Amino acid sequence: MRVVIDRSLCIGAGMCVLGAPGVFDQDPEEGLVEPVGGDAPDPGNPAVRRAVDTCPSGAVALVP
Ligand code: SF4
């Protein structure tokens, strides 16, 4: 599994940042999701899975 981030789907709700603050951030201009440090989020991290589960738009998702 890997985590994909599709900024075109992001609505800036911020749930991913609340769920995994060290992994996801929101850019200061548009409030859209971006990975902290530019690294691909670890799909085995429970916080990442929580962020995926709570994102209302599917902008962060787990894919095979
Ligand atoms: S990725 Fe999802 S939870 Fe995170 S800011 Fe965008 S819409 Fe909100």
Automatic annotation (TrEMBL):
Co-factor requirement: [3Fe-4S] cluster
Record has Cell membrane as a keyword = no
**Keywords linked to the UniProt accession:** 3Fe-4S, Electron transport, Iron, Iron-sulfur, Metal-binding, Transport
Where does the source fall among the domains of life?
Bacteria
Query: Which InterPro entries does the UniProt entry name for this protein?
Result: 3Fe4S_ferredoxin, Divergent_4Fe-4S_mono-cluster, Fe-S_cluster_ET
Q: Where is each Divergent 4Fe-4S mono-cluster domain found?
A: 1-62
Is this entry keyworded Glycoprotein?
A: no
Cited Pfam families:
Fer4_19
- Chain's role: Ferredoxins are iron-sulfur proteins that transfer electrons in a wide variety of metabolic reactions.
Q: Which protein is depicted? A: Ferredoxin
